[in-house]
Structures are given as C-alpha cells and as structure tokens.
Design a protein that fits this description.
Number of strands: 15
Strand order of the largest sheet: 1-13-12-11-14-15
Distance between the termini: 57 Å
CATH class of the domain at 55-191: Alpha Beta
Oligomer: single chain
Length: 400
C-alpha cells in the first residue's frame, strides 16, 4: 500500500457510525433467526448466574495468544480469590523462523501442566472441582457444555483441533496429573465476561461481554422470543456468543481489503481485521511503509506513535486507533439496539486494547454518548480477572 493513501478516508462521522450500528443490528437478528449467517450467534447454554452462587472451580483460559490456568474460590459473601494464574504463550503465525504449527496433544498437555502447577501450590484444593474452560475461538457449544472448534483466529494455528471437541481432550490430559473435574463447561471469553458482569449488574440481562484486545467479540443474553433458532418454549434468557468479529461493516477501505486479501482466511473476520490489536499493526505498516515497522511488535507502539510521534506515522497511528474505538462504539450500540428497551446497558470489557491504548476507552465512551443522546445509557465497566471469574461462575452454576 502506498504511503500516499489519504488517511482521511478512515475517518468516520457519526452518521457513518450509526449506519454501522444499524447494519450490525440487522446482521445479529439474522443470526438469531437461523444458522449459517454472517453473525453466527452461537448459543452458550448458560443463563444469568444465581445471586447465591458459591464454591471452587478450576479455570483454564485459552484466549488471544496466551493460555492461563487458575483455581478460583467464590466465597460466602460473593468475594473471589484467584490462586495463580500460571500462563504460557501460544505459537502465532509468523513469529518463529520455522513457523511449524503446534500439534494438538502438545496443546492439551501444555494447558494441563499449567493446572498441575496450580495444584502443587494450593492448600486443600478439590481435585474434582468443576472446570470452566474459557476457549476464545469460534466454537459450537453443545448441550453437554463441550464445544467443537469451528476455526482458529488471531494468528493461532494448532493442527488437528478444528472440527474436534476441546473440553474432553483437556480433561483427558488433566487426569494423569491428578485433576478429574466433576463437570466441564466450555465457554467463549465474551461469555465469561458476560457472566462476570451479570454477577454484579443491576439488570443482569442487559449486560454485554466485550473483548477488545488481540481479537474482538461480544456476547449478551437473548430469550427465545427474540432468538427463534433457540427453539425453546420456556423463554428463559440464554447467553449468546455473537462472534461479532466476523461482521463485515460498511465503510472499509482499500487498505482493509489489501490486509484481508494477504492475510489469514480472506473474507472472514473483517470487523476484527479492522479494529483488533492483532490487525492494527499490520494496517499501520501498510500505511507507513517507509517506517519499516515490524507488525510483530504488536499494537502497543501505535499508542506511542499517536501520543509522541510526528508526521505521517503519528497521523496513521491516531486514525487507526480512533477508527477502532469509533467502530467499537458503533458495534456496542448495534448490540444494545437488539436488546430493546430504555434501561441502562452495562458493558463488561476485557482486553489490552481497550484498557491500555491511550485514550481508547474514553473515546468509546464519548462516541456512545454522542450516538445515544436520548438513551439508553451504555456504560463500560472493568473487573479484575473477569474471564477467570466468569468461567468459574459458569462451572459452578451447573453443579447441583
């Protein structure tokens, strides 16, 4: 991409953002009505957590490009203690000279070893405590709460996992290490954030779980009356993993098209490829080729260029981060519109992009206020270790 590309083509006015929100709302409704749509709207088979939820759970969080394991205790007053977490980085395309993918059994063993490290450091853990497996890649969750990986994203590629269940092989790898979970629940990280947020929000059904880091995605609760494909007669709320990263928003540019065509799985994850921490450094390198920027440095340097850089590098970093925040605000509004009503909506947000990129969260808030001058109020909240807590909530909520 030439360095003479007009950066102003990436600036979006409020009317553009409203068009994005309305388009996403329509795509979500299509995904709630039938399978195989742009917005997958995958049922998680989890309801809002009960107020009196207590107990211990093992948690494994395979999210973005890192894996964590922890032991979570939800105390008698709802207090939460997280033991660990232990973590390890996953291999990502382009980060090694050989670039050979990890094999499936090595993937399960790596996670099981992280759990074993927790076990060795705990006082009186319950080896058969339930397991919440936060698996942050597009997956179909089954009614038994295991899940089948649809496709890898975020540059991760591990052989012989796509098309297979993920909960069972992890449990099989845990057993020789002294951990045999009584119940295993696989859930997406957005659903984990959703459950964590619903545990303290005033309106538990009006919560959106948002991931804005290496990748991006959203989840919220829907009842079968607004999600016909659930085919349920009880009309109880169910968590739905939208897989909103696959949304194709209007107003993408030739720079976005070039990145999509040259990168991983052309035509898929177009929203994620425009806004995520994984994608932004690649877009930045296209916009400022003379800088010689290495995208493997991640999105962190873009914040530095935005605040202290000069010339085109500063302008490109600013426009990319601003557009990402603007599109994120529009996407949140699109989800909020599907909930209807005028009551406040709480967004439980997790991810390095929204909380570490300079000014990012504040810009999302400002744009939401500008897009919704007459309500509903959409607030953005943060909770430490929300994915670990939400995964423990999911595991404990299914234990009799």
């Amino acid at each position: 991409m030439s360095s003479d590309f007009d950066l102003q083509l990436m600036r979006l006015e409020l009317q553009h953002l409203m068009d994005v929100a309305v388009t996403l709302e329509q795509r979500i409704r299509e995904g709630l009505a039938a399978d195989g749509r742009e917005i997958k709207a995958l049922p998680a088979y989890l309801s809002p957590p009960p107020d009196d939820l207590r107990g211990d759970a093992w948690v494994v969080d395979a999210g973005g490009t890192n894996v964590r394991a922890a032991y979570v205790r939800i105390g008698p007053e709802g207090d939460v203690v997280v033991a660990g977490p232990n973590s390890e980085r996953l291999p990502v395309r382009g980060e090694s000279e050989t670039d050979e993918p990890m094999q499936a059994q090595a993937f399960w063993n790596m996670q099981a070893e992280l759990v074993a490290k927790c076990l060795s450091t705990l006082d009186t853990p319950s080896e058969n405590a339930p397991l919440g497996y936060c698996f942050s890649y597009p997956s179909t969750v089954h009614e038994n709460r295991d899940a089948t990986l649809i496709t890898w994203t975020k540059g991760v590629a591990i052989d012989n996992v796509e098309g297979h269940t993920v909960g069972r092989p992890l449990c099989q790898a845990l057993q020789p290490r002294g951990v045999s979970p009584a119940q295993t629940v696989v859930l997406n990280d957005t659903v984990a954030a959703l459950l964590g947020g619903a545990s303290f929000a005033t309106h538990s059904e009006r919560v959106i779980g948002l991931i804005a880091g290496t990748g991006t995605n959203m989840a919220t609760y829907f009842r079968p009356s607004t999600a016909p494909k659930l085919h349920s007669n009880d009309n109880q709320p169910m968590a739905i993993n939208l897989e909103s990263g696959n949304f194709v928003p209007p107003f993408l540019t030739p720079v976005d098209d070039a990145f999509d065509a040259s990168g991983d799985k052309p035509g898929q994850q177009r929203f994620e490829k425009a806004v995520s921490g994984y994608a932004l450094p690649y877009l930045f390198a296209q916009l400022v080729p003379e800088l010689g920027f290495d995208p493997q440095e991640g999105s962190g340097p873009l914040g530095h260029y935005k605040t202290t850089g000069t010339g085109r590098a500063q302008a490109a970093a600013e426009v990319l981060l601003d557009r990402s925040a603007d599109l994120m605000a529009a996407a949140l509004l699109g989800v909020a519109r599907t909930l209807g009503g005028r009551e406040p909506v709480t967004v439980l947000a997790e991810g390095s992009l929204i909380w570490k990129a300079p000014g990012y969260a504040d810009r999302v808030r400002r744009q939401l206020a500008a897009l919704c001058p007459n309500g509903p109020t959409i607030s953005i909240a943060r909770r430490p270790d929300v994915n670990l807590f939400g995964s423990a909530v999911a595991a404990r909520s299914l234990v009799a």
